[in-house]
Every structure is written in structure tokens, then in C-alpha cells.
Amino acid sequence: MSDRIVLIVARILSYVEDTGAANFLAPLSGALQGLGHDVIMTAAESGARQLAELGVGFHRPDGDLLTQYRPDAVVVGTAKNPDTLGLTLIDRARTRSITSFGAVDGANAMELRFAGRSNDPLAHRPDYLLVPDAAIAAGYVALGMPEARVVVCGHPHVDRASRRREELAMEGRPAVRRRVLPDAGGRRVMVFLGEASHGLDAGRFERQPGYSLHGRGGSDLRTHIVIEEFLDASAALDPRPYRVLRLHPRDDLEEYRPYLAEFDTVSRGGDPLELMYAADLVVGLTTILMVESTVLGTPTLAVLPRMLERHWITAIAAGVIPCATDRAGLIAALREPPIPNEKSDRFLLRDSAVHMAAAISERIESKAI
Question: What backbone phi and psi angles, to 5 degrees, belong to 111?
Fold first, then answer.
């Protein structure tokens, strides 16, 4: 990235609709404003709720945003809704010669994020993509995005978890655990991270013929199958661990009703990092919280019903986060939790908001010149 001072002040319109996109773009406004730009953040649905949770100001979209705000550039987070306003903004920006940026917060469903209702993975392609890591960048290049238009920026969650780890380390894990989980006592604490069993392609979140984990047979939902395997495997441990269910922001508590009695407590809302820092082991599928847990230095285990799903999170595919895909592997990992992988410090790019802001500024500036 260039260290030049940006002389061109631009008006930048940002839009998010999903939780992941909100988390990814939340720090961007401040970084762009620090470079002298005027930023209008707009949000709807769970993206709006997440920005409110994070204390980030935003406007609700109303009418033709491009006419209303007359931006020089638009930055759009991807969404699970194929009819999202974000794709419409990208298309309309192109017709008005407004530079567009698509922010991709994860590796999952790369071929669907800009497809809309079509079979073309780049039907609603922005001018540039902002992605967390090189593996995702390579994935989009393989789909047909020009390599020069894909920018690796890192992920704000990595920065947030890194800063929070330093803060919590000053208090110490034992003290954090006593404060966050006062009823756990001396038992091992295992946190299971909930994850929505729906998305751009709902079928991929339901039982598939190639599953190597089968659950109890009562549900075909991907997360339910894994949670059943986790509950059965952890129940066989002696002494039995203190089990915590951490809900995803999009989770409906009723989806987990059959399993609530088997957990010692349920965590919902607020910042999950203290909870994960206090745990002996964090278990999940492919939520970004898995990466944050690793950055916190907490032993972290991905439990996936298919080996191919490890590519949905680059850190799992790269071996930074260990993965169990069958019952025997899960049982062994719960008995002897993995050692925190310090490789994450070299693998995960830091200062993501700075990288994103610089990338946007440079491309707006070069176009103006």
C-alpha cells in the first residue's frame, strides 16, 4: 500500500445487510474518515442490528441512495439474500460510472455472493473486491475476477481479537473465568459456537450423502448433526466438562430447544471474546468466531461433517485450526485438546481497516487522475 497523502476527498457510500458484512466493514468508516473522506454508512436487517450492537452509526436505506448521496464510490458487503440491495447498488453504480467495491468477509459460498438469481458467479461483479486472505483472492481469480482487481486486506475480527487478547491477558485467564463463568468451578470449560443452518445455498447446510458425522438421526440440519456429536462425545468424558452454548447473532434460540438441557449455560448477545478466552476449548463449524478464538490463544477445534468444508474457512484449510470429521477424531480431540497454533500470528494479516481504506483511496484517486 502507498503511504502517499490522499489529496482527493471523496464521498463514499457503504451498505451492509448481514452480520458478517457489518463486522467486516464496521471499522472502515473511521479509517476512511481519517484519510479525509466523507463516509455514509447504510444498513438493513441483521447488518443494522450488528452495527447498533457495535456502536457504529448508520442510516436506514430509503429511496435511491445513489441519487440521494451522490457518492464517488460504493462499498458493499455481501449478503445471503440473492435479491439484496447491495447487488442493485453495484449494478447501478456501474451505469453511473461510480467505482464499486465488494467486501467479502469469508470463503464460504464464494460462487454465490455476486451471482444474485443467476448461475454466473460474477453476474453482479463490482469493480474491485476486498478480501481477507490470499486463498479467497485466488478463489475469485479462478472464478474469473481479474487478479489486479482483488485486494487482500485482512479481517477486522483478527485485529479485534488480537487487541482483546492483550487486554484480557492483563487480567489473566483464571480471573476472567471466575468473572465470566462463576459456576464452572474447576471443571474444564468447552464452548460450542452455534451457527445458522441456512444461507445462500440452503442445501449445503443440510445432511449430504458424503457426511462422515451422522448425529442422532432426528435432524438433517448441519449444525444440529454436529452439536449432537459434540454433546454425545463430551458427555462420555470423566469428569464431564462444563458445556456452554454460544448463540450466533442470527440464531433463534428455539432452533436449539432440544439440546438446551444438555448445556450448563447459554451465552447470547454482547461480546463473545471474554467467554472464548475463558474456555479450555472452543468447538464449532465454520463461523468467523473460530478464527477469533485461535487469535485469542484458546485451543480451538473445527468439527465438520465433510472434509471439503474445511475450505469454507481458510484458517481451517491451512491447518491453523485443527479439524475433526468423524466421531473417533472428535472423541480424541476432546480428550486431548489441540495446543493453540501460534502459526496464526504469521498467517493472519493485521490492520485490515487501514489496508481497506488505503486500497479504496488509491483506486478512487487513480480514477480521478
Answer: -75, -5
Taking only the tens place, the pLDDT of each residue in 57-68 is 999 999 999 999
- Note the residue count of the chain: 369
Q: Rounded to an integer, what distance in angstroms lies between the CA atom of residue 115 and that of residue 117?
A: 6
Neighbours of 119 (CB within 10 A): 9
CATH number at 11-155+349-368: 3.40.50.2000
Distance CA 203, CA 263 (A): 28
The single-letter DSSP state of residue 259 is G
* C-beta of residue 283 within 8 angstroms of C-beta of residue 303: yes
Residue 362 reports pLDDT greater than 60:
yes
Answer yes or no: are the C-beta atoms of 205 and 198 closer than 8 Å: yes
Q: Fold match between 11-155+349-368 and 157-347?
A: yes
Give the containing element (helix H, strand E) for 290: helix 289-296
- List the chain domain ranges: 11-155+349-368, 157-347
pLDDT tens digits for range 66-125: 999 999 999 999 998 999 999 999 999 999 999 999 999 988 889 999 999 999 999 999
Question: pTM for this one?
Answer: 0.80
Which listed CATH number (3.40.50.700, 3.20.20.70, 3.40.50.2000, 3.30.200.20) goes with 157-347? 3.40.50.2000
Question: How far lies 74's CA from each of 65, 71, 318, in Å?
Answer: 10, 7, 32
Give the DSSP letter of residue 297: T
